[in-house]
Amino acid sequence: MPWSRTWLVALALVAIIAGSWEFELRNAGLGPRYVDDRALWADTRHRLNEHGTDAVALLGASRQQRAIDVQTIAETLHRPVFQLAVEGTSALPTLENLAVDPRFRGTVIYSIAPAFSYNRMLSKTDEGNQAKWLGYYHNQSLIERVEQRLRLLVQGALALRSPDAALPRVTASILAGNGLPQPDFKETFHDRSVFVDYARQTGRKDRQGIVDLYMQNTEPYSAAEFRAVINYFATLIDILRAKGVDVYIIRLPSDGQVLELEKQLFPDAVFWDALENGVDATFVHFEDYPELQGYLSNDGSHIESNKSAAFTQALIDVLQRNGLH
């Protein structure tokens, strides 16, 4: 019996300490938060399978992930929506995955970002992340999927499991005399929507920062290379269309020096127009719709997070006029 009381006292102390630390972390704004990693992506991809005939799949890179408020589009369309975009990558592997998956018969909204669609240096920055995450998704057993969902459940409930509250991050801040660290400038939600506080973002925050990245990491495809890309893309779209999937190809906004450089490196007459003429899909370019402009952050490449819900509504209005339902 004495040992029983000892264990109860020990457990009570652990609970008090953990609860106090949880309170401190929450009070500092350090959670709960999700990690935008392969586990969250794979869980989203698995959940899409539960709504294959009605699902809307969002594909692309960071412009898509930061621009679209998933809740807004789901409530507007009255359909389940799944954010599968991955920052800094090409979405073609995921498009292929949806094309060959007989369960998926919904709608694809595919974001074309010039640096991840027309760029022969893509492998320098992409590192094949979408293909790697697909491999992780395919190789999961049922038990691993259950464990993954439990981990995500805990991650969404406890600041203790937040990436902002990771022990190395907290320890480094405290040892530097700064107390608990500030929350990260980027927050990912369970539906993989992303909110970015650009005021706290590290590094270059202006258009020139994006331009510098372009200059270091981009080189347009040759005409022959791009024809091969179009043929591959068109084949995947044909497979999707054959099983009743509607596909919308969108060009999300950019402006200032970013847009000027994109026009210089990847002129629409050479790339966008060729894609539109070679692929059986519905195309929407932001420059054709004034209502899609005026939502960008200072970097000239991503929608301001505080405006993402309004931008999403404007985009859905445009897509509905082009047949989306």
Describe this protein's structure.
With 325 residues, this protein is of the alpha/beta class. The chain has one domain (50-158, 185-321): 3-Layer(aba) Sandwich (Rossmann fold), CATH 3.40.50. 51% of the residues lie in helices and 9% in strands. It has 15 helices and seven strands. The protein has helices at 2-27, 38-48, 62-67, 70-77, 92-100, 114-117, 122-126, 129-138, 142-157, 167-175, 207-217, 223-242, 256-265, 272-278, 308-321, and strands at residues 56-59, 81-83, 107-111, 186-188, 194-196, 246-251, 282-285. The strands form two sheets. A five-stranded parallel β-sheet has the order 2-1-3-6-7, with helices on both faces. Strand 4 (186-188) and strand 5 (194-196) form a beta hairpin. Helix 5 (92-100) runs parallel beside helix 12 (223-242). The longest helix is centred in the N-terminal third of the chain and has 26 residues, at 2-27.
